[in-house]
Fold Glyoxylase-like metal-dependent hydrolase (Beta-lactamase superfamily II).
Amino acid sequence: MLQLKTFTFNPFQENTYVLYNDAKEAIIFDPGCYESDEKNELTKFIEDENLHVVMLINTHCHIDHVLGNAFVKRKYNVPFLIHKNELPVLKSVITYASNYGFPAYEEAEVDEYLDENKDLLLGTEVIKMLFVPGHAPGHLVFYHEDSKICIAGDTLFQGSIGRTDLPGGDHQTLLDAIKKEMFALADDTKVYPGHGPMTTIGYEKEHNPFVGKRARF
């Protein structure tokens, strides 16, 4: 089984996730840690739990999700993985980071591209990757069936969806991808979004005003 730890970092209140197995192998998703106290909070948990970080993954590469990439990659000497369609998004961050109040942002080089048609392994645990563009052109969602865990990034939120007015975004593409990929998951799947509280697939199917049964938008 897999366990998930949530951290909320930076002024965007971004959710950073540490996913780990019984062997204490861990993946860090979307490290938004920028200030030293945020970095210390993340590393303390990893040390306290005696975790061995094996990779760094971005669901997508908007600024709030990548602020800690260079720190994590350097601290744990791990490969950094994204979907290939996110590379231009990642490369653009350095051009506007200071304007958003992050002058010390460091770039991190990508080591490998993720293919949504293949499974991701954490030890012996199989994590499926779902391609859910619309908020960002190469957005991936990560799903572990046995644990009912879905790391959703900025696709599906409690009562909402990711914004689609940023470069590379498309509203209808996101709606269609959520319905096709995410709503195919079991209703009791726990959705851990990039911002805000956890929700479930079943709740969003029923109540989400964008993609639920009584969608208003």
In short: The domain at 3-207 is CATH 3.60.15.10 (Metallo-beta-lactamase; Chain A). The first strand starts at residue 3 and ends at 9.
